[in-house]
Amino acid sequence: MSERRPRAAWRRHPEPPAADPSAQPPPVEPSVVQSTLYRDGRRVSSPATLADTFRQLREHPDGMAWIGLQRPTEEELHSLASEFDLHELAVEDALEAHQRPKLERYGDTLFVVLRAARYLDAPEEVDFGELHVFVGPDFLITVRHGDAPDLSAVRLRMEQNPDLLALGPEAVLYAILDTVVDGYVPVVAGVQNDIDEIETEVFGGDPAVSRRIYELSREMVEFQRATRPLVGMLHALMAGFAKYGTDEELQRYLRDVADHVTHTSERVDGFRQALADILTVNATLVTQQQNAEMRALAEAGFQQNEEIKKISAWAAILFAPTLVGTIYGMNFDHLPELHWTGGYPFAIGLMGIVCTGLYVVFKRRDWL
C-alpha cells in the first residue's frame, strides 16, 4: 500500500521538547484500550499512555505502533492527529459516529470506516458497531464506536503470526477486514433461522408476525449498508496492489476477504428480497382471512335478517285480530254492531281473512 519511510521524512511538525523527569506521569487515558509497539513482527512494549507511545516510537523509528481506542475524547484524537499528521476531515469523521463504510486516502495515510455486526440470540436481533481505522507507514489506529468487533482477538492472532505482522500496518488492516467479514457469518446464520421461523409463523396465522418482518427488514437494510460498500472498498485496495507494492501474501489475503464479503453481500440482498416476498404473502393471507371473516359476518347478518323478517311477519299477522278484538272490547254503550246477532261470527271471520291474506303475502315474499 505504501513504502515504509523513517518518521522524520513524513512528519510535518517539529519534535516536542524532552519530558521533564521530575514531572508526574500522566494518567492512563480511559478510552485507550491498548497501545502496543512492535518491531519485526514482535511486541516490544505496551506503553501506558499515548505520550509514552509517541516517545518510544520516536526512539525506534523502525517499529510500528498499534493504538486501540474506544469512543475517544476530542483531545485524545487531536493529540494523535498532531503526532501522526492525520487529516482533519478524517479526524472529524472519527469523532462523529454513524459514518457509512468508506475508504479514503490522505497522503501516506489510509482512513477506513467499517460497520461490524453481531447476532444477539436472546432478543433475536442484529447489533451493529462502527470501526474507524487510520493506517500510516508505521502506525495503525483503531477507533471503535460500539462493542463489535473484538479487536483483542485480532491482536492475539497477529502476534501469533509474527511473519505476517512484520509486513506492517497493512497486514493488520487486512486482518481487521477479515475479522469484520468473518463476523458476518453468524449474523447470516441467525437471520436465516429468523426467516425460517417467520415463514412458519406466517402460515400459522400469528398476528404479531408482521411487526417481526418489518423489524428484521429494517435490520437487513442496515446490514446491506454495512456489506455492500465493502465490495467496492476491497476492489479499490486490490486495484492499488501494483502502485503501492503490496506484498503477494497480503494480496492473496485480501482476495479471500473480497470473496467472502461478496458472498455475504449477495446473501443479504437475498434476505431482503425474501422478507419482501414474505411480507407480501403475509398481507395476502391477512386479506384472505379478513375476507373470510367479513363473509362469515355477512352470512350471520343475512340469517339474522331472515329471522327478523319471520318475526315481523308473524307480528303483523297477530296484530290484525288484536286490532279487531281491541276495538270491540271497548266499553262504549253506542258502539256500532255491538248488539248485532252476527257480530261475533263477522269479527272472527274478519280476523281470519286478514290473517290469511297477510300470511299469503308474506309467504310469497319468502318471509315465512
What can you see in these coordinates?
With 368 residues, the protein is of the alpha+beta class. The chain is 60% helix and 15% strand. It contains 12 helices and 7 strands. It has helices at 7-10, 50-59, 74-84, 88-95, 151-159, 162-165, 169-182, 184-204, 209-239, 241-244, 248-328, 343-364; strands at residues 32-39, 42-45, 64-70, 102-106, 109-120, 125-135, 139-145. Mean pLDDT is 81; it is low at 1-28.
Describe the largest sheet.
7 strands, mixed
Q: Determine the number of helices (DSSP H or I, runs of at least 4 residues).
A: 12
Enumerate the strands of the largest sheet in spatial order, edge to edge or round the barrel.
2-1-3-7-6-5-4
Query: Uncertain runs with pLDDT below 50, 5 residues or more?
Result: 1-28
Query: What's the order of the H and E elements?
Result: HEEHEHHEEEEHHHHHHHH
Number of strands: 7
Radius of gyration: 42 Å
Portion in helices: 55-70%
How would you sum up the global shape?
rod-shaped
Q: Beta-strand percentage?
A: 5-15%
Distance between the termini: 94 Å
Sheet/helix structural class: alpha+beta
Q: What is the average per-residue confidence, as pLDDT, rounded to a whole number?
A: 81
